[in-house]
Design goal:
It is a single chain. The chain has 743 residues and is mostly beta strands. Strands 29-28-27-26-25-24-23-30 form an 8-stranded parallel beta sheet. Helix 3 (356-373) packs parallel to helix 4 (393-406). It is globular and about 90 Å long. It starts with a strand and ends with a strand.
């Protein structure tokens, strides 16, 4: 039977390459023990040289041959190596792969020998011009190393290579499931067997089907159809019902191989009049995500990747995300499936198109992306065009052909900034940066597409470089940043021919020196790199049903002199409450209502207060209190003090229990707050993270607060126990949090 074992532990690493590293028996001098995911070099938060991680390095690991492997195939599966990999076994090259964002497998069978076997990976993390997205300038970093999981897979000589399970007739009472099973026969003879497909939910068998087949040597495919499925619950953003598909290969000796995947029954389509999920029209409201984190770039484990999906869904109130500009972690996508977050996934690239060989690698990226991810119900759109590239008819005709051939169930799209672009995809996706604070918000889709009729259309980026904003910027800039996101999302929702809009972007990210603010950071996010919110995040977060989570976020520092001229008017309050009661200096000054007339396109417009009768406004500052009211009940409140002082160092861990596997990690946020619990945005004292127990801090243990707050990530070791963590500034000390680490 199939075995698939995670082999992230037990690796040795050295930040250089010599050909003799592939030879068994080589001394371990200079190698250090590491655990995957691994960044080939940790970098500073900002002001570093991106060339620091662009080198060739070596990873190696011992694999001990097991007697149970006799007569079977043994493969190494790599989820992501940046950017070119050569794999050696016992001194011989057994495979290679171009591209850092898609998976690849290497068959080790022929080179294995009894006892210990040396697996070596040569990792070229330079920006090679023959590999997308490289070849010219690029506005993000592609950090080096083996930064995603590695597995050892042991299968029978005839095994299931992949499965594509396609729900059919999903809007009918009786539904269907067509499962295409890709079989690999590594023998020299044909093999007769039955393919059995079982559909289940929460461990309960719902239906099964089977088909007899014969596999010739090499690759083959078998389709198994199950019809007349009843009682199937649809996957949608509010109720993401998931089902398990198990495929078994059976012959006269019994079950030879099994393969399991998850699916959801749903119909997702972009039409000229909008986006429809299961026949119901809904507005796509999303942000773009880079999978980058401080210090270690892409090299974060499953828990951290999954947490990002939770932040997008539950903190930012989104229903969709675009994986700019490459396929992202399988763990992130798994979580999107589980929580009902729609995904627009695209191939690696940024503006530049290389030569024919480069394009061939990009076409392979299309195949690898789709074949890896075609069972994810969250993915509704394949991006088969290099982001913001010029037209290239033959190249994009081929990428569309590949996508449609591999997956006829999803539409294709190609993100551009061009009007009248060569439209080969199913959906015209446009980066529309026309809004710069004035009256122009979005272009009419037909102006962009130059087509006679409206076509399926999504805005895939806006704002971003038009108005970069730091979390510690002056109040007016932070408010305008948030209002620009509000204006575009409002306008998109009012245009019946725009299916949705993805803002640029969710999180700040590291970039090349050619871009951003000169410190290797693009401050384009509605959150910073530590996933700490700016005012714009509060706009998105307020677009959730108040009965699920009431939100009340006045967009102000509540001080007289932070704005030009002074004061806090107009006062923008991002909220989903029916109304907001305001008290100043202990006195009620009125109840204020959402600006529905000004922003009718969003579910929950902000409350905007343009005028307040405030005696002695310029003479003495005073306390402010804001109370959110839903269905006549006070459900949330926020207070401000006129004279804030550092009062407490708050510590907030994302998780209190981790795995003792040497790679698990969680974020811990530290905030210096005033008497009312509000972050002090200009507090920049030093902070030290003090940790005891079976864990380490990712990045520096001594650093400085950024805008009154910062986060760190804590990684486990392979030992069980209790991690005790606290933070300390020169004047404040947080509580100690205890994180349980166990197997």
């Amino acid at each position: 039977m199939r075995e698939r074992t995670l082999i992230n532990c037990g690796w040795e690493y050295i930040p250089k390459w010599r050909d003799e590293f592939v030879q068994p028996g080589l001394s371990a001098d200079g190698f250090v023990k590491v655990t995957i995911p691994h960044a080939n070099k940790e970098i500073s938060y900002n002001y570093f040289d991106e060339r620091d991680y662009q080198f060739v390095s070596c990873y190696r690991r011992t694999i001990v041959y097991q007697a149970s492997w006799a007569g079977k195939r043994v493969l190494a599966d790599f989820d992501g190596v940046m950017a070119y990999a050569e794999v050696y076994l016992n001194g011989r090259l057994v495979g290679s792969h171009k591209g850092g964002y898609t998976p690849f497998s290497v068959d080790l069978t022929a080179g294995l020998q009894p006892g210990e076997n040396l697996l070596v990976v040569k990792v070229d993390s330079t920006e090679r011009p023959d590999i997308p997205p490289f070849g010219y300038t690029i506005d993000y970093l592609c950090y080096g190393g083996i930064y995603r999981d590695v597995y050892l897979r042991v299968v029978e000589p005839v095994f299931v290579e992949n499965v594509f399970a396609k729900p059919k007739q999903v809007l009918n009472e009786k539904k269907g499931l067509e499962t295409t099973v890709f079989v690999s026969n590594t023998t020299t003879e044909e093999h007769s067997f039955s393919v059995v497909v079982k559909l289940s939910k929460d461990g309960r068998l719902i239906a099964e089907g089977s088909r007899a087949a014969v596999a010739e040597p090499g690759k083959s495919r078998v389709d198994v159809v199950i019809s007349n499925l009843s009682g199937i619950e649809l996957w949608d953003v509010d109720n993401p019902h998931l089902y398990q598909v198990e495929v078994a290969l059976q012959d006269s000796k019994g079950v030879q191989d099994t393969y399991t995947t998850r699916i959801g029954f749903r119909e997702a389509v972009v039409r000229p009049d909008g986006f429809y999920l299961n026949g119901r029209k809904m507005m796509i409201r999303g942000l773009n995500r880079h999978q980058a984190f401080p210090y270690v770039g892409y090299a974060m484990p499953a828990r951290v990747q999954r947490r990002d999906a939770d932040i997008l869904k539950y903190e930012l109130g989104l229903n969709a995300v675009r994986t700019s500009h490459y396929p992202q972690s399988p763990h992130f996508l798994d979580r999107c499936d589980e929580i009902g977050l729609l995904v627009f996934e695209e191939i690696p690239g940024w503006q530049h198109i290389g030569d024919k060989d480069w394009q061939a690698v990009a076409c392979e990226n299309v195949r690898e992306m789709i074949q890896r991810d075609w069972n994810h119900p969250s993915i509704f759109l394949w991006g088969v065009r290099i982001n913001e590239s010029q037209d290239c008819h033959d190249f994009y005709k081929e990428t569309n052909r590949i996508a449609r051939e591999l997956d006829p169930t999803r539409q294709t799209a190609g993100v551009r900034y061009l009007e009248g672009s060569d439209f080969l995809e199913d959906v015209y996706t446009m980066n529309d940066f026309i809004h710069s604070g004035g009256q122009l918000i979005l272009r009419d889709p037909k102006q962009v597409t130059k087509t006679k009729e409206y076509v399926p259309y999504i805005v895939t980026e806006f704002n971003g470089h038009m108005f970069p904003t730091k979390r510690f910027d002056q109040e007016e800039r932070l408010i305008e940043h948030a209002l620009r996101h509000l204006r575009v999302q409002n306008q998109a929702a009012l245009d019946p021919h725009i299916a949705g809009a993805f803002g640029w972007c969710a999180f700040d990210y590291n970039t090349h020196y050619d871009f951003g603010s000169g410190d290797r950071i693009c401050y384009h996010g509605v959150m910073d790199m530590f996933r700490i919110p700016k005012f714009a995040a509060h706009f998105y977060g307020s677009q959730i049903d108040p009965r699920i989570k009431p939100v009340l976020e006045p967009a102000t520092r509540w001080t007289w002199g932070d704005r030009s001229i002074g004061g806090v008017l107009p006062l923008v309050i991002f909220t989903n409450c029916d109304k907001v009661r305001v008290r100043l200096n202990g006195h009620d000054v009125g109840e204020f209502y959402p600006s529905t007339a000004r922003y009718p396109g969003v579910p929950y417009p902000p409350v905007i207060i343009d005028k307040l009768d405030l005696p002695k406004w310029r003479v003495q500052w005073f306390e402010g209190e804001f109370i959110g009211i839903v269905d006549g009940e006070e459900v949330i409140a926020k207070q401000f003090t006129p004279a804030p002082v550092p009062t407490k160092l708050v510590i907030e861990p994302d998780d209190l229990e981790l795995k003792a596997d040497g790679m698990d990690a969680t974020r811990v946020v530290f905030k210096v707050v005033d008497q009312m619990g509000n972050i002090l945005p200009y507090f920049t004292d030093a902070i030290e993270f003090q940790l005891e127990g079976p864990g380490t801090v990712i990045g520096p243990t001594k650093t400085a607060l950024i805008g009154g707050a910062i986060a760190t990530w804590v990684r486990t070791t392979a030992d069980e126990g209790i991690i005790a963590l606290k933070g300390a500034t020169p004047t404040l000390e947080s509580e100690t949090v205890k994180i349980v680490v166990k197997q």
